[in-house]
Amino acid sequence: MKPERQPNLREMETWISGVFAGRLVLEIACGTGYWTQFFAPNANKVVALDAAEETLTIARHRVPPGKVEFIQGDAYELPARTESFDAAFAGFWWSHIPLERIDQFLRGLHRALEPGATVVFVDNRFVQGSSTPISERDDDGNTYQYRSLSDGSKHRVLKNFPSREELLSLVGPYASSAAYREWDYFWALEYTLAA
After folding, report:
1. Residue 42's closest CA among 20, 13, 25, 62?
2. What is the pLDDT of residues 82-97, one digit of tens each?
3. Which of 81, 84, 125, 154 sits a CA distance of 20 to 30 A from 184?
């Protein structure tokens, strides 16, 4: 992680640690459990989903057992559960959702939540000179970056950078209230799911 982003991350970690106190949280695209470790201690329970078993294995070792259930699954086809969640979180996932699938994703997520649930997304802002440059834009408006790995391979990665207005407009039909906040390198969107 880039050193200039560390102060923002410390602020975000502190903030997110209290957002889900006492709640049953559905985490989408939990990855290695980086964000899970900050809010799970204060949550009632967390069900953390990711598509890749490799990252779930890392996450299981990062978070103490007991409060978190890690499951493999598809963020667009959430597995049926008996419990109803009163909160949801996705960290650094929104930017990887194709624009044409955002509404499908939100509708599926909201079906798993109780009315009045708290929903939080955090992700990167595009910061000129710090962010990896956008290399292309497709016909749907999605933007892509090329990422180089330590083995020398290059990969094309979907990475959208929505504006505050776009985010609030996209969740507006589903939210009874919504708040956007930003740091130098990141943003957060928190809203209450309408009844």
Report:
1. 20
2. 888 999 999 999 999 9
3. 154
153 within a domain of the structure (yes/no): no
Whole-angstrom distance, CA of residue 153 vs CA of residue 96: 20
User: How sure is the predictor about 53, in pLDDT bands with cuts at 50, 70 and 90?
Assistant: very high
Q: What CATH number does the domain containing 185 carry?
A: 3.40.50.150
Domain assignment of residue 172, yes or no? yes
* Whole-prediction pTM: 0.95
**Number of folded domains that form the chain:** 1
Count CB-CB contacts under 10 A for residue 37.
16
Judged on CB neighbours under 10 Å (0-12, 13-18, 19+), 101 is: middle
Which residue segment(s) compose the domain that 186 sits in?
A: 3-126+161-193
Query: Which amino acid type is present at position 77?
Result: E
HSE value, Cβ hemisphere, 13 Å, CA-based, for 173: 7
CA dist 123 and 188 (Å) reads 7
Work out the angle at residue 180's Cα, subtended by the Cα atoms of residues 69 and 39, and round it to the nearest 5 degrees: 25
